[in-house]
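ok trying this again, last paste got cut off
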Amino acid sequence: MLMTVSCSRWSDVDPAGHEFDLEPARRIVGRLVQATVADRGASWRAVPQKLRDGLIEQFDREFVGEYGAWASGWHWAASEPGGGGPVRGWCCSRDSLFRRDDPDPQATVERVVAALGEWRQYLVDLAAAFADLYQETADLSLADQVEVR
């Protein structure tokens, strides 16, 4: 995951401050995936690991350019070692790009776009939880607000 997520403030990732539409992501990923598999013919699934990892970096850069820093969390997978993230529809470049059971490269496109959507939904849910907590503690002193579990 890019440093942008681990170094972000809430204002950088708060969904209320960032409009969201999946179609630009679908175009970005579709273009990059198509460029990767264009000359591979029937062996489109045999993309070397180095190229797969490079694609993740390209997706990150283009997502951040399109949506802002918040988008770089799209591949913070639940399966990451050391305490994974909230995205369950994604694993890693090896296991999530150009899978053996994918009927065509478009399945990879949809998986990446779905992971971005899942990450966005996580942020929406987190914002709602913060809003609920704020409402529940609004009548308390600041010291008591901080202590609420």
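PB: full thing came through this time. Residues 106-137 form the longest helix (32 residues).
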